[in-house]
Amino acid sequence: MAFDVKKELKEFYQPKTKPSIVTLPKANYLAVRGTGDPNQEKSAYKESIELLYGVAYTLKMSYKTDYKIEGFYDYVVPPLEGFWWQEGLRGVDYGHKEHFSFISIIRLPDFVTKTDVDWAIKTAGRKKKRDFSKVEWMTYDEGLCVQCLHIGPYDEEPKTVALMHQFLEEEGYELDITDERMHHEIYLSDVRKTASENLKTVLRHPIKVKK
Questions:
Q1: pTM to 2 decimal places
Q2: Average pLDDT score over residue span 48-72
Q3: Please, are residues 210 and 172 in contact by the beta-carbon 8 Å criterion?
């Protein structure tokens, strides 16, 4: 049976609708950086998703090619994730989505190396006749965080975030969002096929012990 990170790492990918404290291990990702309103028809964000999945599936299907990845095993491509921020703001101003900056990411299996990613970027570009050079290898050590499952439209995330922040303060922690530690979202639903009120999104914020 194919390895599915959502099932194997339930603590991180299937949290409850009640906030919890977790410590995330270092992991490697495919990443694409960009700015702008993600809802625009030809946004940099939508392009980032296309580029990520193009490379992700090239890696997944590599066993059907002459290129062999050491330690390869069959796996389900992990869900799309993203880091989001707006320059100069600690929170999020949903009235000005054009000011968003983001890093779209897809987690990589542990056996995939940067060399394998470089191969996949070149291979995807050759097969699809498209430039995939915006895709990069990214290692992220997320560490101590508060997280919660948000069910509903993305614009209603502040309600869940407020619950998370109340919880972390009650537990003796404080928010630790910095230039390196950002608001993190994991998209468990296919937005093309799911009603907005049923969308499932993992929300995660970095924290530290309160001094």
A1: 0.95
A2: 97
A3: yes
